[in-house]
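ok trying again, last paste got cut off:
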Amino acid sequence: MPHDPTLERLANATLLVPFESLQAPRWILDGLADGISGVCLFHNNLESPEQVTALNASLLEATDTPLISLDEEGGDVTRIGQARGSDYPGNAALGSVDDTDLTRATLRSLGLQLSGLGFNLDLAPSVDVNVADDNPVIGTRSFGSDAELVARHAAASVQGLQEAGVAACAKHFPGHGATSQDSHHTLPQIEADADLLRRRELLPFRAAVDAGVRAILTAHIELPGLGVEGPATLNRAMLNDLLRDEMGFTGVVVSDAMDMRGVSGEIGIPEASVLAVAAGCDLLCLGRFVYADQVAQVRSALVGAVRDGRLSGERLEEAADRNARLRDWIKRSAQERASNGADGGTERVGLAGARRATRVDGDVPALENPYVVEVDAPAGIAVGEVPWGLGPWFGDTVRVSPEADDPSEQLTAAAGRDLVVVVRDAHRYPSAQEFVSALLGARPEAVVVEMGLPIWRPDCGAYVSTYGAAHVNALSAAELLGSTGALRAAR
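nice, full thing came through this time. structure:
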């Protein structure tokens, strides 16, 4: 294939790429100089605030205002908080409080922290309406199950992030909350008619558009009720007729990760990328492990599709123009903040929000010498391996596997002591319910702390709901349970 620098640069303009190290490799710096729109960082790129700031500064030296993005939702999905958990309570907690001023302030604080580290595009907020209790991929990432509640917090989140100079990216359009499957692994299908989908799934995205959201991220889901066959990411009617023409969105359409099986499992990442751009995606989030060779394959596929007539050059130009306008907005925002003397400092709102979200049913006794049993639960792909639980604040804490461990051993260890049982989304795991029920059968006065969604509620002495497993959610619960270490940490 003959070399065409102009066409290759246009193809590059659709790319949001990952890399594997704590420093930007040469192919990233050269790629940014050759027109790649930006990068998406993951926990493998993030070691310390100093390292992240230096890394992002090096990216800024490669080209004028590249997009420097990450998935930082606060709550359970955190990149900057990967080492110990997030300092922000997450969407389910904020939705349970239902104070849009708190949500706006929380996301503004998060945005200021991100901006201070050099990020300018956050692939957040998740504005999915979580109506499927067994949803394996959304859960606490949603503000709730009521579309109007989610809509008002979607708008507040967008406003908060963008007041901090960070472009918000509402996701997962047109709504991943009614699924019982994970699009990382398969193509989920939502069984709902068009009227319900418009009243429920689409309402928060309309609110985000009205709030001025700069980007919207697609979902790899199928919606037969809207006439969508195959992934919404690859559906032109969904991204143009609905999102742009009907809903009036003029910003950047970002694909969810193109390495997910829900979009590329049958056809491969390069072909899926061509189809996504043709359908109306402006910016391709390529995924976690799509490095130099595969990025080159995607670029080559886009160039080849233009030459074959399957993708118009005008569509590439349109995508490149929208991405350039997003970068211009980011640059102007940074200049305005600098001229206004904004220092990038953060307000301490995360713990305050987590405290307001924490609920107690029953009476928590004055715990003396408590024994804490954490019933383990698998981490989803979007969440990753982030620490959770009350271990940092209670010395005698044990993490058990509900499939492999014996409840009687924990009852023996807890004899004569106050028992606290910690779970995470216990409603999704029958083995966890059985394990906890066995403990409560012998110790009905025990305290149960649910750090996911409080859907399964066993009979117990007191039931504590945190609506998330972030660091501040756990700290709030530990305070409530009287941990002296938590009380000191919260001062």
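cool. The radius of gyration is 23 Å. The first helix runs from residue 5 to 12.
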